[in-house]
Design brief:
alpha/beta, Nucleotidyltransferase, domain 5, 6-stranded mixed beta sheet, 21% strand, globular, Hydantoinase A/oxoprolinase domain-containing protein, MfnF
Length: 342
């Protein structure tokens, strides 16, 4: 059996195609993703789903979908977003389709009745992967835009928050990511030479620029739009970061900008560590499992800052698969849902 798992985010749509043998064992995983800004190009979703599957579409037995794109400001509210996204998915595939909700996998009829159960529920799909590695742990998934921090006890997620609003309060969601976060939301001043300089509250640079300059990501990882519409070379990122202090590369040296980037990176790690500490203290959990594009440079470093033991999901998945872990988890949940005959 071959199952396609999609994770439809506001900026990226991820795919995992998972092959299962007759005993339900995984025999292969293939992953891919596309940058698709749902706030401006949501009408391209159906085409994007088909392009991601490519030649595999004729072999797919079922499709599972998780989503966070309902938060895109092209929708008036989450219910509208969930219904629209799920409708486009249903129009795309003539196959068994189910969706990840806070209660597990549900069919399209349930989506229409209870759309808010699907809103930003993709972490439900990834938690079982972390539980497989450690039944008692805190799971951190740092993607391009956000960081999930999910407590797991006795192999089951036990998050206190269910909606994004609640999870922002409980420490289980931090709106900071590896690529798309505006640098001005992380720092209001940076070290420069022997002093400090206040930053401009503008969208001059994003965290992708920080991590590219520091060598934490590659140009291939820099899949989001650049703030100034120019390229994503290291030189482009250095220039964008220089503008954070209203400078340019004539006024600042490369070492100056790297000094700033290191500080911004550290403050981002501290933001995640603060939320991780909140969950750690409340749930009395020690082991941390990280995944996502920022699993090493953000998730792992946040755990290490607090002195907590940490493992990455690379213990059970490839590095590429870790980046789209919710899509992998969605495919696994869809296989279970299909086998259960629901």
């Amino acid at each position: 059996m071959k199952i396609a798992g999609f994770d439809i985010g506001g900026a990226n749509t991820d795919l995992a195609v998972v092959d299962f043998d007759e005993k339900g064992n995984i025999t292969g995983i293939k992953t891919d993703f596309r940058y698709l800004p749902m706030w401006s190009r949501k009408d391209e979703l159906s085409l994007t789903l088909l392009e991601l599957l490519g030649d595999d579409i004729d072999d797919i037995d079922a499709v599972g979908v998780s989503m966070t794109a309902e938060l895109a400001d092209s929708y008036q509210n989450k219910s509208e977003g969930v219904r629209d996204i799920s409708r486009m998915v249903m129009d795309t595939f003539n196959l068994p389709v189910a969706f990840v909700s806070l209660q597990g996998m549900v069919n399209y009829e349930t989506v229409l009745k209870e759309p808010l159960e699907l809103a930003a529920a993709n972490w439900i799909a990834t938690a079982p992967l972390a539980a497989y590695m450690a039944p008692d742990c805190i799971f951190i998934d740092t993607g391009s835009t956000t960081t999930d921090i999910i407590p797991i006890k006795n192999g089951t997620e036990c998050a206190k928050g269910r909606t994004d609003l609640q999870r922002l309060a409980t420490g289980e969601l931090v709106y900071t990511g590896t690529l798309r976060t505006n640098v001005a939301t992380i720092v209001d001043k940076v070290p420069l030479k022997d002093g400090w300089v206040r930053t401009a509250s503008e969208l001059f640079a994003v965290t992708a620029d920080v991590h590219l300059v520091l060598g934490n990501i590659t140009r291939e990882d820099y899949t989001s739009e650049t703030p100034d519409g120019s390229g994503n070379s290291r030189e482009d990122s250095l220039l964008r970061l220089s503008r954070v202090v209203c400078g340019d590369m004539d006024l600042l040296s490369e070492d100056d900008v790297i000094q700033m980037a290191r500080y911004i990176h550290q403050k981002q790690v501290e933001q995640v560590a603060e939320a991780l500490e909140q969950v750690h203290q409340r749930e009395n959990l020690e082991m941390v499992i990280t995944t996502g594009l920022g699993m090493d440079v953000i998730g792992r470093k946040a755990a290490e800052l607090l002195g907590l033991p940490v493992r990455t999901m690379e213990d059970i998945l490839t590095t590429e698969d870790c980046v789209v872990a919710p899509a992998v988890g969605t495919a696994l949940l869809m296989h279970q849902f299909t086998e259960s005959g629901k």
